[in-house]
Amino acid sequence: MTDSQPKPNSLDELLWLAHRIGQDPRGLVVLGEGSVSARLDDKRFLIKSSGAALAELTPAAVTECNTEEMIRILEMPLLDTGAYERMIREAQMDPSSRPPTSESPVHAWLHSVPGINFVAHCQPEALLQILCSPAAARFAEHRMYPAEVEFIGTQVVIIPYADPGTPLAREIRSKYQASQRRTLARAPRLILVQNYGVIAIGDSARSVLSTLFMAEKSARIFVGASRLGGPIFLPPQHVARLESRMDEGPRASTIKL
Q1: pTM of the predicted model as reported, rounded to 2 decimal places
Q2: Is the peptide bond before 160 cis (omega within 30 degrees of 0)?
Q3: Which of 72, 104, 214 is nearest to 149 (CA)?
Q4: What tens digit of pLDDT does each residue of 160-188 get?
């Protein structure tokens, strides 16, 4: 950490989010995978350090980074592993702190999008069953029940597998921007990467966790309904009507988790 301490709220919320994801009995993560981050301001964000486990994340394992310097990595020619990791370390605000996770550039870019204050990446078991199957795009493009529309939204970004690091981060940036341009609906809150995992984004730690929980529930419903000859999706007009009358933000931020 630097002498410019983060708002206690941001760090506390980040640790709360990490612990809830890491300790969830549904297997959102196993061992040390997954990452979480929190926006501090236009120039700085906090992120889990490399190798730290979400379930036991402590303040010492949270690294403060320079948002602009981290995003700059995405504009560089493809770097070898050593150069990529060196640039990530150089974007730390305090060189003596633990190195941030290798996924830091995509977290940094997401924090540059208005309204995104928290980001979580994990590999929930049921969701990965779908993301490792031919049904991934079908799952991403449809909704099955009203609460799914409320907590996940109508737009889910689906991304084909790419090498972790700069290639994957660029794909996420490109597809997310395209999704924003394509619709006037609320900004996407869920990014699905085939054969890799899921990224949930939101204005608060609670909204991110709500999205993750609902996405994992939807995945289990999708897998179960597929075994019974389904799933049967909500017609587009009903999805649009549900979204138009749901005040999603306040409920997601006040619901008890």
Answers
A1: 0.90
A2: no
A3: 214
A4: 999 988 999 999 999 999 887 766 556 89
